[in-house]
Amino acid sequence: MNTFQSRRIVIKVGTSTLTYENGRVNLRNLEKLCKVLSDLHNSGKQIILVSSGAIGVGVGKLKLKERPHETRYKQALAAVGQCELMFLYDKFFGEYNNSVAQVLLTKDVVLNEFSKHNVVNTFQTLLEMGIIPIVNENDTVATDELIGANFGDNDNLSAIVADLVGADLLIILTDIDGLYESDPRKNPDAKKISVVPHIDDFIREMAGGSGSNRGTGGMSTKITAAAAATSAGINTCVMGGDDPSNIYKLLNGESIGTMFLAQDGTM
User: Fold this and answer.
1) Do β-strands 8-13 and 169-174 pair in parallel, antiparallel, or remain unpaired?
2) Distance (Å, rounded) from C-alpha 199 to C-alpha 184?
3) Which among 219, 220, 229 has a CA at the least distance from the CA of 174?
4) Which are the contacts of 82, defined by CB distance < 8 A and separation ≥ 6?
5) How many CB atoms lie within 10 A of CB 232?
6) Beta pairing class for 258-260 and 235-240
């Protein structure tokens, strides 16, 4: 598959990549990510970043001992954390002379044809202006993700955004460097699958359950997102987010993470 020619790329980054176990922001990872994406943008790529982490960052900023379970507290923390996240993104991208824009989406906006059309126009205009859109679920007003509804997960949101903007490639950064035949955290001999030509029930069963205790998803939600994106003709790579510079290797054609092939014959 020729990922080098991918021009419009959606990158999804999860809470586990953006924060430490204690909930505080992982500044080293965040700065590396912004540097790599800025460099790709400077090279002529169009970058759209789908970022989780608002609630997790809110927990860390307020120094709470654990993530709350009640929806209203999650929404309040999302409001606090989203401000902090965008401040940091604006700071780090700005250091590399790139501008960012915040795009907060909700389920009803995507499902309504009129508002969906406006969203697509906004994305297109931002990209034409050389601005990097940073997308998140609007957790402060939307409860879908907070109560665990599948559609509201940011893995799936990234696939929706990739389809909306007509992306060539979707990259999902996570705390595991791809899809394994069994859980590598439990089985050190587990083998990673480099390429998945087609997502079937066997692949879905292999994905298992949830991920870290800081995020809302796991490999299962990433498979669901990959299925949606590849069905729309978009190659999708699930890879580790601990070293964002691996994105360069992926775009140079190296085998990084697990690549799920688009279902339109694109290779």
Assistant:
1) parallel
2) 20
3) 219
4) 54, 58, 102, 104, 136, 139, 140
5) 19
6) antiparallel
State both tokens at 86: 């965008």
The C-alpha atoms of residue 20 and residue 38 are separated, in whole angstroms, by: 23
Condensed to tens digits (0 to 9), the pLDDT of residues 130-171 reads 999 999 988 777 655 544 433 457 899 999 999 999 999 999
Q: Which residues of 6-23 are buried (b: 16+ CB within 10 A; e: fewer)?
A: bebbbbbbbbbbbbeeeb
Radius of gyration for the chain, computed over Cα atoms and rounded to the nearest angstrom: 17
pLDDT tens profile 92-136: 999 999 999 999 998 888 888 999 999 999 999 999 999 999 999
| 17-43 pLDDT tens trace | 998 887 789 999 999 999 999 999 999
**Is residue 83 a contact partner of residue 77, using CB atoms and an 8 Å limit?**
no
pLDDT at 142: 64
Residue with tokens 């505080």: 24
Alpha helix (H) residue ranges in the chain: 15-18, 27-42, 54-61, 71-95, 107-111, 113-128, 154-165, 201-207, 219-231, 246-251
How does the average pLDDT of the chain come out, rounded? 88
Backbone angles phi, psi at 169, to 5 degrees: -155, 140
- Nearest CA among 185, 179, 184, 228 for reference residue 202: 179
For 242, residues 6+ apart whose C-beta sits below 8 A from its C-beta are: 17, 29, 175
Q: Which amino acid is present at 12?
A: K
